[in-house]
Amino acid sequence: MTQHQKRLILDYLFITIGSLLVAFAITWVFVPNKMVTGGVSGIAILLYHLFQFPISITSLVINIPLFWAGYRYLGGHEFAIKTLYGIIAVTLFLQLTAPLQLHPLTENPLLACIYGGLLLGAGLGIVFRGRGTTGGTDLAARLLQSVTGVTAGQTLLFIDGAIIAGAGLIFGIERVLYALISLYITGKTIDLVQQGVGTNKIAYIITADRTVVRDAILHHLNRGCTELPAFGGYTGAERPMLMTVVAQSEVSRLKELVRALDPRAFVIVSDVQEVLGEGFSRAQGEMTPEQTHT
């Protein structure tokens, strides 16, 4: 089996698991609590409470023409297949989990917006990790962008805003306020799933003894280290800067090591959302034992 085939299998596994979590969020939390968070699922929830239309069928009916238009005008064969798979998977899981509407995870609206947002964000984040989508209004936004030139973000904001405003007219303003909290939690959870928890740190070190400090980082910490050209702002003298990425647990060791070698060294440490490449896990950006020295 080739690397590409393995990656495809993993992608479809991610899309399947993510679609299941999306379905759980909708049928187990949002629907029984009359909570709308935008997108096609938001339209489906509104129509369900107004006319008792099945959410799975409504989502499919809206998504199919969006998918067809997206494939025709936006192209992308592999992306289109994954999108179609995501749409079908979500539709199937919405149908299978429909009985959960009678037994909600919680009937407390605050808990519903928190845990519904977490479930939905985790599901969508996993789908995106599989380089797929579940269709929805993001396709509509990209289509309108190609026609009108308005950015996808602005279009998506307008569409979701209109859906949530409609929910306010039907369910009341209080449910809209909860839905906005859920939207925020969903977005943050998507970022967390896609980018990781950011436990790595990047350090920039300006020192007069850069050779000694560099060798200590390479051999005592067993971490890679890169020299970057830099110049003093006051003197104009060349002062190359060292850059290294370490695990959060190693920050104290790094600072102690630099302080022992050069007490006057200038050290800047900041968070790293994700690290990819040699010496790091490609899946999560985590450190691996084998570090590549640059």
TrEMBL record:
<feature type="domain" description="DUF2179">
    <location>
        <begin position="223"/>
        <end position="277"/>
    </location>
</feature>
<dbReference type="InterPro" id="IPR019264">
    <property type="entry name" value="DUF2179"/>
</dbReference>
<dbReference type="InterPro" id="IPR003740">
    <property type="entry name" value="YitT"/>
</dbReference>
<keyword id="KW-1133">Transmembrane helix</keyword>
<feature type="transmembrane region" description="Helical">
    <location>
        <begin position="51"/>
        <end position="71"/>
    </location>
</feature>
<keyword id="KW-1003">Cell membrane</keyword>
<dbReference type="Pfam" id="PF02588">
    <property type="entry name" value="YitT_membrane"/>
</dbReference>
<dbReference type="Pfam" id="PF10035">
    <property type="entry name" value="DUF2179"/>
</dbReference>
<dbReference type="InterPro" id="IPR015867">
    <property type="entry name" value="N-reg_PII/ATP_PRibTrfase_C"/>
</dbReference>
<feature type="transmembrane region" description="Helical">
    <location>
        <begin position="12"/>
        <end position="31"/>
    </location>
</feature>
<feature type="transmembrane region" description="Helical">
    <location>
        <begin position="83"/>
        <end position="102"/>
    </location>
</feature>
<protein>
    <submittedName>
        <fullName>YitT family protein</fullName>
    </submittedName>
</protein>
<keyword id="KW-0472">Membrane</keyword>
<dbReference type="InterPro" id="IPR051461">
    <property type="entry name" value="UPF0750_membrane"/>
</dbReference>
<keyword id="KW-0812">Transmembrane</keyword>
<feature type="transmembrane region" description="Helical">
    <location>
        <begin position="108"/>
        <end position="127"/>
    </location>
</feature>
